[in-house]
Amino acid sequence: MAWPNVFQRGSLLSQFSHHHVVVFLLTFFSYSLLHASRKTFSNVKVSISEQWTPSAFNTSVELPVEIWSSNHLFPSAEKATLFLGTLDTIFLFSYAVGLFISGIVGDRLNLRWVLSFGMCSSALVVFVFGALTEWLRFYNKWLYCCLWIVNGLLQSTGWPCVVAVMGNWFGKAGRGVVFGLWSACASVGNILGACLASSVLQYGYEVSRVLRQKKTLKKTHTGH
User: Which ranges does the record mark as transmembrane (predicted)?
Assistant: First the structure.
């Protein structure tokens, strides 16, 4: 029994040029990075919870109260965890709505521009959520909710656009094999996001927290 043409040696690769390879890799890593940015949020939840409820983790009697009340957003770690779960729900709901909207927008506009806008804007929103608010020491629940709604809408541009691009470039012959390989991008992104978050987590929220503790202690000792 002969193998189907798609599995015969060289028959599949001969159909594609280097442009197909570039499209495959660009869309693969584009969606992988989108998934990586989502995965990092779940990995840093414990650190965010500690940052938002400093009094719940104050086990030292030597530190002044000002340190633990300066960024007090929730009275307990349980409240912070509940709010983080609410953010996940908000993100998923806005993402689901955004998929429908992004599909319509992608059919009417240039797919490359829509995908590029969604990725860059989503990166900016995540930066504001995780870094800018911490640098400015500005903590507000409504701001976090609004940012995560916008993030869900922006990230929804990824899936419809990359699937449409892949569909335009790869014909029916061998599409199952190609998309079977390409569909691993979500898992690769999750692994990449988990590895990146775990490797730099010690330099994240905890660094700024320790620096503020040292500055406050120095001021306290100077005043005495």
Answer: 16-34, 82-105, 111-130, 142-167, 179-205
